[in-house]
Design a protein that fits this description.
The chain has 193 residues and is α+β, with helices and mostly antiparallel strands. The protein is 19% helix and 45% strand.
């Protein structure tokens, strides 16, 4: 009986090791043949790197007031243009960072959660990517919270999609209004579809 239990224990250990090794070699969801953001950065052409920022002008595109404010792509030469995923490409969002600010009359409390939301519009359904941070006394007194999120494999959206930004504060009994700060960045890259 002891020999059977010992063999079972060794077999279980080998199975766990095998599963762990195969999990570390899985590919990024939605980006065939890619296994990590670092590897992608090295193999993605410069023109396919994407930096988005909050759009401050009135053009909304697919971003309705319910989805949030639209984004501009910051091009390598510093110019900015309204961002929609180009035809024949898909956009992989890898990072979301920025500030959310308190709306007038919507006081925050210590211990609540600030959320910066990036909605990736889609033909079938929208995807939401959320950066979260607990609000401490400094954030509450300043009315500003900084949030960051890094995705190893990224969230993928097809051509024609836009990235819309919104913000809320999560409390124990619901949500409280917040605004998207002026210093918000979305990072990612374009892949062929």
């Amino acid at each position: 009986m002891k020999r059977l239990a010992s063999s079972l224990l060794v077999s279980t250990g080998l199975l766990v090791l095998l599963l762990a090794m195969s999990a570390s070699n899985t590919q990024a969801g939605g980006a065939p043949g890619m296994s990590s953001t670092a590897q992608l950065s090295a193999t993605t052409a410069t023109e396919d790197h994407v930096v988005l920022e909050r759009r401050l002008t009135s053009t909304r595109g697919p971003c309705t007031p319910e989805l949030g404010v639209p984004t501009n792509r910051v091009l390598p030469d510093g110019t900015r243009e309204f961002f929609v995923v180009p035809a024949g490409k898909a956009f992989v969002l890898t990072d979301l960072e920025g500030e959310i600010t308190e709306k007038l009359g919507a006081t925050w409390s210590v211990g609540t959660i600030g959320i910066l939301n990036a909605t990736l519009t889609g033909a079938v359904a929208n995807q939401n990517v959320r950066a979260r941070a607990p609000l401490n006394a400094d954030a509450v007194s300043a009315g500003i919270a900084t949030v960051k999120l890094h995705l190893e494999s990224g969230a993928v959206v097809d051509s024609g999609a836009a990235v819309c930004l919104s913000a809320v504060v999560l409390e124990s009994n619901g949500f409280r209004a917040a605004s998207v700060g002026t210093d918000v960045r979305v990072y990612g890259y374009l892949i062929a579809r």
